[in-house]
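Reviewer 2 asked us to include a model.

Predict the structure of this chain.
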Amino acid sequence: MGTVATVDGTEIYYKDWGPRDAQPIVFHHGWPLSADDWDSQMLYFLAQGYRVIAHDRRGHGRSSQSAAGHDMDTYAADVSVLAEALDLRHAVHIGHSTGGGEVARYVARAEPGRVAKAVLVSAVPPVMVKSESNPGGLPIEVFDGFRASLAANRAQFYIEVPSGPFYGFNRPGAEVSQGLIDNWWRQGMRGAANAHYECIKAFSETDFTEDLKSIDVPVLVAHGTDDQIVPYEDAGPLSAKLLPNGRLKSYEGYPHGMLSTHPDVINPDLLAFVKE
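Predicted model (structure tokens):
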């Protein structure tokens, strides 16, 4: 649809559908995907009369494969450039996984009037990695393993993740969608290996505690209890407690990629929150 240039010259690709005078809903994708991961939600909200926007994070999808800037501060700054370029006002920002971290960092710093509400879906805040202050987090060795697998054979790694824990297809009785697996691989392989490698540190080690505390707009925190990528107990409930105006909605047995496996349930819930 278009691109916008950031401060360092990186070109950020974005889609922008729907009436320009309608309330905008901005979608922020997870690692290592692209705006295409939001097809179901964008079509759904477009049909409801909203303006829907989704961008490819730097180094992901069709955006520039930049040498630097693969950190949450820069990701949020890139969103600010996009919001200003499109003159987005009273927007609802919805982020999945890594995109949820991006939303938290952006909304906490957004200009007054830019953001009306936010949604964190299966999102990485408050912080993923285990530490003395976050004893329930995942050991750093888990993320070191991600980096090692990516560096050794990214193409194979990007088959194994969606085939297993991302969509919960490794669970007994799971209804496996080869299309979702192939589309995950397609999106991932279009991005840059360096960006994806460095983004692992960004989504796993960034602490969003202070961001969450400072967000005063309504925020819906949606998380599946069988999330094998961002474990439920150390994410959704903790984020909701830190948000001054947050609400937790739990989905029993749903996986990390529940937006794609259960859009018939999640999409109406998102719409209800947006319309409140």
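Residues 83 and 114 are 8 Å apart (CA to CA). The mean pLDDT is 98. We have added this to the supplementary material.
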